[in-house]
Structure formats: C-alpha cells, structure tokens
C-alpha cells in the first residue's frame, strides 16, 4: 500500500501522503484507528506562523472533509507571542509551519479488512492497483547469515556519513547548567531542551528507512508523512491531544528509563526505578499541571481531571512514564481553537510555557520545525487525534539532509550527564533502524 502511494508522484498532489500506524498497541494509549493512509491531496492549505490558526479555521469550516496534516513547533511564535520569536535559525528540512490536506484516497486497515474511499468512486480499481504494485522492500525476519548486508538493504541507506551533533558533549552540559541557573532564579520550573544530530550529504530510500524504523521501534503513534521531497519517519510513543465527541484527552510523557529485554530482572528493576524516581515524578507532575491548565481554557469548568498519574508503559527501547488528563469541551468550541489554546504541547516546552519557549529559542542551536509539533487527522465530524513528533528521522531528499532531534526535561535536580545519556537512549531506535552504531 505504501509502495503504491509513493510511486504515484507524477500525479497532481500525489507526492503528499500521511500514513498512521499504531502497531497493535492496547487501546489505552492508541488512536481510534489502527492503520490509516491518506494518499494524494485533492485540496491543501500551507501557512507560516502569524495567522495560521485563523486561516486554518476558515479553510476547514468551508470544507467539512477528512483532513490530515501537521502543526510545526514554530507556531509557538503565534500562540506564545510574548516570548517566542519568529525562527531565525536555518531550516534544511523545510516543512511549513502548518500544512493540511484533503486526501484523494483514504484507506483504513484493520483486523477485519480494508476500507477504501476516494472522490473518483473507483475503490475496487485502487485495490487492484495496490495488490499489483511490486514491493522491493525485504519483509519478514532477516536470515541468520549475511545480516549486515540485509540490514543495510532494509534501511535503504546508500550513502550515509556519520551523524554530527550540533553540540559537543561539553557544550551540551554547559547549556543544561545555564538552564538550571534560570530555574534557580525562578524564571521557570522545567525546560525541555533538545539537540540535533545531522548527516549531510546523505542518500536514504525513505520508504525502506520507514520500514526499518517500524521494525526496530514500533510505537503507537508512528507515522510516515511526506510532502513531496520532505519526509518525516516518526516512531512516536506520545499522544498530544485527542477529541472524541465532547471529550478531549492528553497523554504527556515525562520520565524515561532504558529497557533490558534480554535481562528480565534488570528490565523489571528499571521499570520499578522509573516509577519511584523522585526526579521523573517531579517532571511528570509539572507537565500534568501545565496540561490541566491548558485544558481548563477549552473545557467546562470542573470537568478537567487526571485519569492516570505516573503510568509506566513499555516500548521497544525504553519505559515511559505517561499520565492521562481528560476534560469536557466547552459547547460550540471549534477544533482549531482547542489546538491553538494548548499548542505547543507542554511535554516539549516545560513550565511555565510562556517563559520557557523563549529559553528554548535562546539555548537550542537548531530550528525544531516539524519536530515536537504534531501530525494527525480530523474527521468530518470534527473529532481528531494528534501525536507528538518525537523519535523521528527528518529527510529532505532534494538537498540530501538527514537529521534527528532528541531532548529531555531539565529541572533543578537534573544530572546534566544523565540528561545527555537520556538523549542517547531515546535515539537508540533510530540508530538501530539505520544500522548505525
């Protein structure tokens, strides 16, 4: 199905698609749909920060169709204008701040079958085309022999120079220490601080890279999102915001611990240590309070509550501490207003949000772009589900620029070398997918 979508680039709008896959995770942390592909753009909206949310609201109200797309982190300049500055750093990846499209084809996969919808009314023809599309990506378990060659083929890496960090380890530690001084002065309580690793010039088969990432790090909010030559290969474990009827749900992640799948005792101990970690609990409860405050702007008074606090969930490379906050939306509130009042998500900023976005602009060296933004869908009824764009590879095929960003929540009690190590743990799935040590 993905090979079919990727091969129709000559058609108008066909270089655009969004594939969402929950990899079979339990319903407690997954979207309402197991696997969705929105392929081809019948209509689209691309806007930079400034009046992006008002433009999107007007555009969406006129259409009332299924919508797929993204919100980039740099919309913070619009939602937190008193502290966020228009981005000045270069952006080699090039995703716009906001992009949404009405798909020409919408395909849902589930254990019960496949559903296809399109504007041409030729669903059976689409299915025949998909089934007739040759697939060159190796599938199934790798053979015991010649594993290195198979791994290279599966990742689609033809020429990949080593990833270069934007910060040396020493520079990273110095900036964490500077942020802790801001916390000591009372400027903020917590800051999500991110760093970039990039490879250039890099040649990557994005579809094969996506397949390899999915096998190395299957996660419940994964997506392969393409806007012509710009590619997002995302293995996210985190939900930003979901609306179902009058209810909204947010599930921020704060707290990470390594997995030891070959050592069950050590694996269990790591999960227990994360649950009891005072540092991780303090990070988590700070972002929970921030999300509660955000939801109180869009929900009926008294309806916002914490459904789960400090939940420990296993993922391929890490355990994560996840809390769930819910609320009842104010009557008549448009879905774009719900996003505008809560964006960017607190787990990727820190607290208080209006102060830390300025510190992020000041201390980070790379423009975040679509990273720490959100990708997802909106139904014709106005329900939606958006992930948090983390654990992701970003690739611009035209300029051969490949990168990933990772970060952690900095508090006064953070151990700077430990925060650097947490960044490396979070990158493990990406590097495993690429066959990179």
Provide the low-confidence segments as ranges: 139-154
Structural class designation: alpha+beta
Domains counted in the coordinates: how many?
1
N/C terminus separation: 31 Å
Q: Helix count?
A: 13
CATH class: Alpha Beta
CATH-assigned homologous superfamily: Anthranilate synthase
What is Rg? 21 Å
Gross morphology: globular
CATH hierarchy: architecture: 4-Layer Sandwich
Helix content: 25-40%
User: What's the total number of strands?
Assistant: 21
- Which fold name corresponds to the CATH topology? Anthranilate synthase
Query: Percent of residues in beta strands?
Result: 25-35%
Your description of this structure?
Helix content is about 30%, strand content about 30%. The protein is α+β, with helices and mostly antiparallel strands and about 425 residues long. The chain has a single domain (about 1-435), classed as Anthranilate synthase (4-Layer Sandwich).
């Amino acid at each position: 199905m993905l090979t079919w979508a990727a091969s129709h680039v000559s058609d108008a709008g066909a270089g655009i698609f969004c594939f969402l896959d929950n990899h079979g995770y339990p319903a407690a942390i997954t979207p309402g749909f197991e696997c969705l592909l929105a392929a081809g753009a019948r209509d689209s909206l691309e806007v930079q920060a400034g009046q992006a949310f008002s433009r999107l609201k007007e555009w969406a109200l006129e259409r009332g169709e299924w919508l797929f797309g993204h919100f980039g982190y740099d919309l913070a300049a619009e939602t937190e204008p008193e502290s966020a500055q228009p981005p000045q750093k270069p952006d080699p990846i090039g995703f716009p701040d906001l992009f949404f499209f009405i798909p020409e084809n919408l395909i849902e996969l589930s254990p019960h079958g496949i559903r296809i919808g399109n504007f041409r009314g030729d669903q059976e023809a689409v299915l025949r085309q998909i089934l007739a599309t040759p697939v060159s990506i190796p599938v199934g378990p790798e053979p015991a022999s010649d594993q290195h060659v198979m791994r290279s083929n599966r990742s689609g890496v033809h020429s990949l120079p080593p990833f270069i960090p934007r910060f040396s380890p020493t520079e990273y530690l110095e900036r964490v220490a500077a942020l802790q001084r801001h916390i000591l002065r009372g400027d903020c309580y917590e800051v999500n601080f991110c760093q970039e690793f990039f490879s250039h010039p890099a040649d990557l088969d994005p579809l094969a890279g996506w397949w390899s990432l999915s096998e190395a790090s299957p996660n419940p909010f994964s997506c392969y999102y393409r806007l012509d030559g710009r590619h997002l290969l995302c293995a996210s474990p985190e939900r930003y915001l979901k609306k179902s009827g009058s209810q909204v749900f947010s599930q921020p992640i704060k707290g990470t611990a390594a997995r030891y799948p070959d050592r069950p005792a050590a694996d269990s101990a790591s999960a227990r240590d994360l649950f009891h970690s005072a540092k991780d609990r303090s990070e988590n409860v700070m972002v929970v309070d921030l999300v509660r405050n955000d939801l109180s702007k869009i929900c009926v008074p008294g309806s916002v509550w914490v459904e789960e606090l400090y939940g420990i969930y296993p993922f391929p490379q890490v355990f994560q501490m996840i809390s769930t906050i819910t609320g009842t939306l104010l009557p008549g509130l448009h879905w774009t207003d719900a996003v505008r009042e809560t964006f960017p998500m607190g787990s990727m900023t820190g607290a208080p949000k209006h102060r830390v976005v300025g510190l992020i602009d000041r201390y980070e060296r790379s423009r975040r772009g679509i990273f720490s933004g959100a990708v997802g869908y909106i139904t014709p009824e106005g329900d939606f589900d958006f992930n948090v764009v983390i654990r992701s590879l970003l690739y611009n095929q035209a300029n051969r620029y490949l990168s990933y960003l990772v970060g952690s929540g900095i508090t006064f009690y953070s151990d700077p070398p430990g925060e650097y190590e947490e960044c490396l743990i979070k990158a493990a799935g990406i590097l495993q997918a690429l066959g990179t040590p």
